[in-house]
Design a protein that fits this description.
Blueprint lengths: L8 H17 L7 E6 L14 E5 L2 E2 L3 H5 L6 E7 L2 E7 L6 E5 L6 E2 L1 H4 L1 E8 L5 H18 L4 E7 L5 E7 L4 H9 L4 E10 L4 E6 L2 E8 L2 E4 L2 E4 L3 E4 L2 E8 L3 E10 L3 E4 L10 E6 L2 E10 L1 H11 L4 E3 L6 E3 L3 E5 L2 E6 L14 E6 L2 H15 L8 E9 L1 H30 L2 H24 L3 E2 L1 H26 L4 H6 L2 H23 L9 H31 L7
Parallel strand pairs: 7-28
Antiparallel strand pairs: 1-2, 1-6, 2-3, 2-4, 4-5, 8-10, 8-27, 9-10, 11-18, 11-24, 12-13, 13-14, 14-15, 16-17, 17-18, 19-21, 20-21, 21-26, 22-23, 24-25
Helix pairs in contact: 1-9, 1-13, 4-7, 8-9, 8-10, 9-10, 9-13, 10-12, 10-13, 12-13
Length: 563
């Protein structure tokens, strides 16, 4: 009976997964450039994010960094398309203020070893908990977003003694940039939105017991006897008030309730009887809350500002809020905004709680950490010292990648030669090499799917896994052709011998996984990359490719059986 490959579900599964892996690895489009860094004073700041794809600007397609840099001396309205969205920015000084790189030829993410950049290892100057380390990373990420530094990745790692470290990887950059990142301190402001109703160009603003007339005249307003133009700020009753916007019916004021001096501390870790910081399951998502310790002066100022605000009810949840939100700024850049519970209206609270809701625990934790870092004015919860800096040029990284590619080719040729001299048969050699290639594609596809960063150690792990797979395939072939000798071949059928080889293969795979598993939890990244790709490759082999290869080997070598 003829062997129909497409009727074998194991083989069909491998083919389908290989095709899907190729789709995951190869990008659907090569158009556009990737935003690598954004200057804090860039006109595009707040409109585009690091990692987004910019494809078009002012009627011109952008396919290389040079295409975009033609606009460096441009002034006027800058229209641009990013990640499928059209946006506008006004350029005054002739500088776009962003750096971009050409879009990668694949969806694989390569580490600094291969693309160049700076890797810095930071150590806390005191013993800290995991919660403090995570808060430190969140604060550093907030600084990156606020101060417009280049694309960076942060990772918490531990050594064999359990000491905690923070690893920063920057695409490009230098030790000086990291030192500046550690030294930066933001200016925090919490501004409450006050909406003043206007009738016949006149309204009123009440702060505590004082009421001030508000008169609108074209693009200016007068509060009491103080004239304000749009975006101008003045102090009234010892409170900073900014004229933000106006319509025929309303004047929008931004009133500063808190500054960095008012935030005495933020609860980083839940301590019963001391402070609250937790994430709990709530309905179809997760609710987070944490306490903030406010100065008496700040709490009284907040009470003055909110005392006369209206209470509104959310029609979806029935929750009552004040009719204005509180907006959180860091270095005059809006970061986020929060609703104000009606329970806080006009009250002097020095220990209010910040509450939020997200669909997943991960999103809730990320939002909680971000808000904590903003409220601390971007100050680090622990002092850090730089204990190691590795800088790799893009040219050297390209050489590493090329050398790794050559190593894979040489290894493949060597294995092919050994297999041919051992079996003297192309019908054994070709399936063996083909399935090794399939394992490589499937492993790279899985790495692309989970967005794992491939560095030299990760590539070494892939090579090790494929080598282990080739050894397993040789074991299957030997069991089919040789078995345990002529006597055993008479006792055991071909399928039984293949099953026996799988018993050894599973034992070998378990040994490999157990050997590299500790590397995932100990070390500073390099060993973890090797461990992850090795385990990924071994699992793909024993679960997907090995059963399919065994089925093909059975059919191809069936006629070699001696009755």
């Amino acid at each position: 009976m003829r062997f129909n490959v497409l009727r074998e579900w194991r083989i069909l599964l491998v083919i389908i997964l290989v095709i899907l892996s190729i789709i995951l690895i190869i990008p659907s489009s090569q158009e556009g450039v990737v935003v690598r860094s954004i200057d804090s004073d860039s006109p595009l700041s707040g409109k585009i994010e690091i990692g987004e794809i910019l494809t078009w600007a002012n009627e011109k397609e952008i396919n290389s960094p040079e295409d975009l840099y033609e606009f460096e001396n441009f002034t006027g309205i800058f229209r641009f398309m990013h990640s499928g969205k059209l946006d506008l920015a006004y350029i005054e000084n002739g500088s776009i203020g962003i750096s971009v790189v050409k879009k990668s030829a694949s969806n694989l993410e390569f580490g600094l070893d291969l693309v160049g950049g700076t890797r810095v290892l930071l150590k806390p100057k005191e013993n800290v908990t995991d919660a403090v380390v995570q808060q430190t990373i969140a604060t550093l990420e907030t600084r990156i977003n606020v101060f417009g530094l280049r694309e960076s990745k942060f990772q918490s790692v531990k050594d064999v003694t359990g000491a905690s470290y923070i690893q920063i990887e920057m695409a490009g950059g230098s030790k000086e940039e990291v030192e500046n990142l550690l030294a930066k301190q933001g200016k925090f402001e919490g501004k409450v939105e006050r909406i003043v109703e206007i009738k016949n160009n006149t309204g009123s603003l009440k702060l505590d017991e004082e009421t001030y007339s508000v008169k609108l005249n074209n693009n200016t307003i007068t509060i009491g006897n103080i004239l304000l133009e749009k975006n101008q700020t003045s102090k009234i009753n010892d409170i900073d008030i900014q004229f933000f916007n106006a319509t025929d019916k309303n004047v929008l004021l931004m009133v500063t309730a808190f500054t960095g001096k008012d935030i005495q501390s933020v609860c980083l870790q839940d301590q019963p009887g001391v402070c609250v910081s937790r994430i709990i399951k709530s309905g179809n998502g997760y609710e987070f809350n944490f306490q903030v310790f406010i100065s008496q002066e700040g709490a009284e100022r907040f009470a003055k500002i909110t005392n006369d605000m209206k209470v509104i009810t959310d029609p979806n949840t029935g929750t009552k809020y004040l009719d204005g939100r509180i907006y959180l700024y860091l270095d005059e850049k809006l970061i986020t905004s929060l609703s104000i519970s009606s329970d806080l209206k006009g009250k002097v609270y020095t220990t209010p709680a910040i509450t939020g809701f997200r669909l997943t625990r991960g999103e809730a934790l990320k939002e909680q950490l971000m808000l904590k870092s903003i409220l601390q004015s971007g100050s680090l919860p622990v002092s850090l010292e730089i204990i190691r800096t590795d800088q790799i040029s893009p040219v050297l990284g390209g050489e590493f990648l090329r050398d790794a590619f050559y190593a894979v080719i040489i290894a493949a040729i060597t294995v092919a030669a050994v297999l041919y001299f051992r079996y003297r048969s192309f019908k054994i050699l070709i399936p063996n090499m083909l399935f090794s290639f399939f394992e490589l594609v499937l492993t790279l596809g899985a790495a692309s799917l989970i967005r794992w960063t491939l560095d030299l150690s990760s590539i070494a792990g892939i090579i090790a896994a494929i080598g282990s797979g080739t050894n397993d395939q040789i074991m299957i072939i030997d069991e089919i052709l040789i078995g345990g000798g002529e006597e055993e071949k008479k006792i055991y059928t071909l399928k039984q011998r293949v099953k026996r080889s799988f018993f050894i293969i599973f034992g070998s795979a378990a040994t490999v996984i157990a050997g590299v598993l500790p590397m995932m939890f100990i070390g500073v990244g390099a060993m973890k990359g090797f461990a992850v790709t090795t385990i990924l490759g071994v699992l793909i082999g024993i679960v997907i490719t090995r059963p399919a290869f065994a089925r093909i080997a059975e059919k191809i070598l069936e006629k070699e059986e001696k009755v």
